[in-house]
Specification:
With 149 residues, the chain is mostly helical. It contains seven helices and two strands, in the order H-H-H-H-E-E-H-H-H. It has a two-stranded antiparallel sheet. Strand 1 and strand 2 (99-100) form a beta hairpin. The termini are far apart.
Length: 149
């Protein structure tokens, strides 16, 4: 028996109600996402370790835990995040917990992060592993905080 917390139960209930109204992609059976690489994945569901090993060769300057986190969070889209970087310093300012200017630029361009709070909490989870009080919610937009590169 699976025990769900209130949030998971609400999500499950919403999916049960919405599911019959959502379209199934042409040529795919229901449940196709369990067998396909999702956007950003770029590798088979069981191919994470092989992709991580390839990343170790392509980006040898990344600490193993950083490469693991970036690949888990962004999949193959992290190649765009890292670009042609050949050293840690090529990724720009470090905001803490191995979050860099390169990740911030990627989030601003592709995931609509516009404030320090969005960067620190929403995708990077930087605030979760930072000194308490260091990251306060902010409505300040990035152009006022950090010049675009």
């Amino acid at each position: 028996m699976v025990v769900l917390n209130a949030r998971d139960a609400a999500k499950q209930a919403a999916l049960l109600r919405l599911g019959p109204h959502l379209p199934v992609p042409d040529g795919e059976a229901a449940g196709w996402t369990g067998r396909a690489a999702l956007p950003g994945g770029g590798f088979p569901a069981d191919g994470f370790e092989a992709a991580l090993a390839a990343w170790g060769e392509r980006y040898p300057f990344l600490a193993p835990h950083t490469a693991h986190q970036l690949l888990r969070a962004y999949g193959e889209c992290a190649r765009e995040l890292l670009g042609e970087a050949t050293s840690w310093s090529d990724l720009g300012r470090v905001f803490g917990a191995d979050r860099t200017g390169a990740e911030l630029r990627y989030l601003v361009r592709h995931e609509w992060a516009h404030t320090a709070a969005e960067f620190a909490w929403c995708r990077s989870k930087l605030a979760c592993c930072s000194t308490p009080g260091r990251w306060r919610p902010s409505r300040t937009r990035w152009p006022n905080l950090w010049p675009r590169a």
